[in-house]
Amino acid sequence: MNRKIFTFFLCAALFTMSCAATPVITDTSGTGEESLSVKKGQAFSIRLDSQLSTGFSWKAVEIPDKIILKDENIRTEESGRTGGIDIQEFIFTARNSGKAVILFKYGEHWKKNPEYIKTFKVNLDIK
Hints:
The protein is mainly beta.
């Protein structure tokens, strides 16, 4: 019985530490810039509010070679409502140390010549 309790708490502690180790930038305004310091090989996330049902979305338009885009996720905050808020999450991994910049643009990317109405810049210091 004690061994099961110990195993449970050990797993819970490891899970908590692994979640806390991932730096995250969350921006709800969708304009401006943020800075983030990460370690080489470390994963990090950028979360940006969007309104996908209106045809607008965020796209990482400039990703330097020091960074790998691993995944993109969408979380819907107000499902079933046109114009409701969605959160686009971009998950990256830092490959090499140094300074880097990721540039995001918000627009109707499905159009041939999209007009971008917002930009968001992330300045990275990879150690």
